[in-house]
Design a protein that fits this description.
about 350 residues; plasmid; eight-stranded antiparallel β-sheet
Length: about 350
């Protein structure tokens, strides 16, 4: 009986491995076809299925570089940073440092003075699910001022002015994507932990998961990709500043799979926090939101995803907890349509 059980276990392992290989070949075929049609856009993809990791990549670090992109090449993950921030918020909830339903009033730096109509109104979960109603940073104006480093002109004074001068939340309780919301969440984390956001994310995610190529303030490394705007012009990586918690982390396919693996593996702080971020906090006719995550459900699957776009790169991360798979797609051009189409094709043809 023991021998028979062992034999069946080996067969199951082999079939699972073969299944994963077949999926990875299909994903590679889709990515390769996209690269052949768009040879100027480098792409790096990581896929995890039942703890097995698979990678594929095409293109060069830059248009002038002879070096191939691989799983270790550094990209801007842009707003995917927000799911790292929401995971940190959820870890703080588990540690009883705050609650999702707490109002933000007592968690903000002292420089913020909420007007009467806003007091005891905005919850931490409102910030994390993009329904706070707060006015946002004017990116169009910032781009006019500095097309290469638009967020460089955002300071704490900028943020306090926006918040302190807000007398009414026009669309409170309705979804409106918010950079200022996640910037405030970063400041809330700094207050509850008494440390910079950089130190918090390093101590609670980057270091424990050994994400050694996930970069914050310093990203002057050899294997960094170039960024390109939609017209093909060179675009600088965003420098670290006060908006970091909303979208300034740099990483690669290998490290993002480490994060996905932790999310999909029970019994660790990142996974326990991820479960909290996956709870439904907002729903309308167009979308369902957890904390930082879009929740997409069909007849057979519930998937959690987050996209990111900097001025020169695009990315998207997606996972299915029930089926234990996850995927990260990184492009060295700002091209939200391409990264979304790639995920849609992979999901419809391979993962669904």
């Amino acid at each position: 009986m023991k021998t028979s059980f062992t034999f069946l276990a080996v067969l199951l392992l082999m079939s699972t491995f073969t299944f994963g290989q077949n999926i990875s070949k299909k994903i590679d075929s889709i990515i390769k076809d996209n690269y052949q049609k768009n040879p100027d856009v480098a792409i790096s993809v990581g896929f995890i299925s039942n703890d097995e990791e698979y990678y594929t990549s095409y293109g060069k670090l830059s248009k002038e570089s002879p070096v191939d992109v691989n799983k270790n090449s550094i990209f801007e993950i842009a707003s995917i940073t927000k799911i790292l921030t929401s995971n940190l918020i959820a870890q703080a909830v588990i540690e009883n440092r705050l609650k999702p339903e707490d109002y933000i009033d007592n968690y903000l730096p002292k420089s913020y003075i909420l007007q009467k109509n806003l007091k005891n109104k905005i919850k931490i979960s409102d910030l994390a699910s993009h329904q706070s109603g707060l006015p946002d940073i004017d990116f169009a104006k910032l781009i006019e001022l500095n097309p290469q480093q638009p967020v460089s002109n955002v300071t704490e004074k900028t943020l306090t002015s926006i918040v302190n001068n807000c007398s009414e939340l026009i669309d409170y309780g309705k979804y409106r994507y918010s950079t200022i919301g996640y910037t405030l969440l970063g400041q809330i984390l700094e207050k509850v932990y008494g440390k910079s956001y950089d130190k918090v994310i390093r101590e609670k995610i980057i270091t424990p998961l050994q994400m050694t190529n996930t970069l914050t303030k310093d990203f002057n490394v050899r294997n960094i990709t170039a960024g390109y705007n939609p017209n093909g012009g060179v675009q600088e990586f965003f420098k670290w500043n006060i908006t970091a918690s909303a979208g300034l982390v740099k990483s690669n396919a290998s490290d993002m799979l480490k994060y996905l693996k932790a999310v999909l593996t029970n019994g660790n702080p990142v996974s326990e926090a991820a479960l909290l971020t996956e709870k439904l906090y907002y729903k309308d006719e167009k979308r369902e939101m957890g904390l930082g995550l879009t929740i997409s459900t069909d007849d057979q699957n519930t998937i959690y995803l987050k996209s990111g776009d900097s001025m020169g790169q695009s990315s998207i991360i997606c996972y299915n907890r029930a089926k234990k798979w996850g995927i990260i797609i990184l492009l060295n051009q700002r091209n939200s349509k391409m990264r979304q189409n790639l995920l849609n094709e992979i999901y419809e043809k391979v993962l669904k």
